[in-house]
Amino acid sequence: MQEKIKKGLCCLIAALLLFGGSIGVKPAYAATAPQIASEGAALYNATTGQFLYEKNANQQFYPASITKFMTALLVLENSSQDDVVVFSDSATGNLESGAVNLELTKGDRVKVRDCLYGLMLKSANEVANGLAEHVSGSVSAFAQKMNRRAGQLGCTNTNFVNPNGLNNANHVTTPHDMALIAKACFDRADFRALDQTTSYHFPATKKRPNGTDITMGHRMIAPGGSDYYPGILGGKTGYTSAAGNTLVTCAERNGVRLIAVVMKSKRTQYADTRALLDYGFQLAGESGGKKQEAVGGETAQETSGRVQALTANSQAQSQQENPAENQQAVSRQTVSPAGSQANPASRQEANPSANQNQALSGPGAKLPSQAGWLQRNGVWAYREANGELVKNARREINGAQYWFDADGNMKEGWQQDSTGAWYYLAPGQGALQQNCWLQYRNQWYYLGSDGKMLTDSRTPDGYRVNREGVWIG
């Protein structure tokens, strides 16, 4: 019996020695290439210069607003941030309908530094045009400069025709090339400082004499957000009807810097990006594994119902996600405020954190002089510098709009003005919701740049709302 066991062990050892090299047993901890739903993707190790994952990485796609990486790079390389950009009629007027903007007009004068924040946080398209004209004299000359710089960076399938990424059949690049462009940007400390900023006060202009508070549109950058990614260095979102969702993201951990690019996505850009970065950092922890072939897959499922309200800084993770980046962000509400006789101010079931990016400028924020927020019996009020409470009025405070009743109490929830238009003020915070998607009872409504709910029309990103403001397709 013992002799048989010895012979059996010898046979087993021989088999392992003979076939072990070809069996390809994978350790349980080995990184598995992610399934990416976006049509194009690339994961680049900017520390080693190695591409770790590629899916149609050399196929040309429309980039939309991730174009602005190259715009920002050339501006930083060719101008001083203290320079002043004088906006022309061509820069501010040559935009397609619905294009995101800061309402700059001919003659507005804005420092390059401020323009860069408007470019990367707000994704303002007229700002991109103005910067291009400031650097090169014209948009066309700047586009030539963009293409020359792309070639210097090793890009082989890129052709830019504008500085903003608005729709143009000849404006194309690839995930591979975008990774190289992004690397050049994140190599610069000034760019990293710019792109890690989550909010910024854009200075006064003719149409906006009080300036504008703008927030970063990339959901993985803001600490404390549900999509925050530890180690994030920055990124940029993009969307047009032709490009779909595009996203570039850079993160660094333990000295390893990764750049993830996804293009032609259908609302899976964040799930795909997270999967790519997780995979890359797992590889880095396994002695720097080799590049993997792309693996297609079903659309990644994002947590259902985790986000109920969307802003420029936090767009919803649902199948109805508003992807508009090069087009004005819009907002939908699920209950039809226009079609109900109930008091809309009592409807505050929507997520009270609907506009979290307003929190720092909302109730409780310390302000100079005698002005400031105060709470009375659990209700917020605002005292002006002269000591008087704001009553029966609307006020812009630190860039956010607030409404107050005749007793000086801050209004919340649904509000209707004298024209019958509906607005929504964030519960607990009071900030007027603008340019945001807002979900309520599993339906979506649209709140425009002035906060007014859109009715019986098409939203800037192409969705339709009925006369009660409900999204219908």
UniProtKB/TrEMBL annotation:
Source domain of life is Bacteria
InterPro entries documented for this protein: Beta-lactam/transpept-like, Cell_wall/Cho-bd_repeat, Peptidase_S11, Peptidase_S11_N
Q: Where is the composition biased (Polar residues)?
A: 300-360
Please report the residue spans annotated as repeat (Cell wall-binding). 434-453
State if Membrane is listed as a keyword: no
Q: Where is the signal peptide?
A: 1-30
- Gene3D superfamilies noted in UniProt: Cholin Binding, DD-peptidase/beta-lactamase superfamily
Q: Where is the active site?
A: S65 (acyl-ester intermediate), K68 (proton acceptor), S123
Record GO terms (molecular function):
serine-type D-Ala-D-Ala carboxypeptidase activity
Q: Give a GO biological-process term.
A: proteolysis
SUPFAM superfamilies documented for this protein:
beta-lactamase/transpeptidase-like (SSF56601), Cell wall binding repeat (SSF69360)
**What family name appears in the similarity comment?**
Belongs to the peptidase S11 family.
Q: What is this protein called?
A: Peptidase S11 D-alanyl-D-alanine carboxypeptidase A N-terminal domain-containing protein
Q: Which organism is it from?
A: Stomatobaculum longum
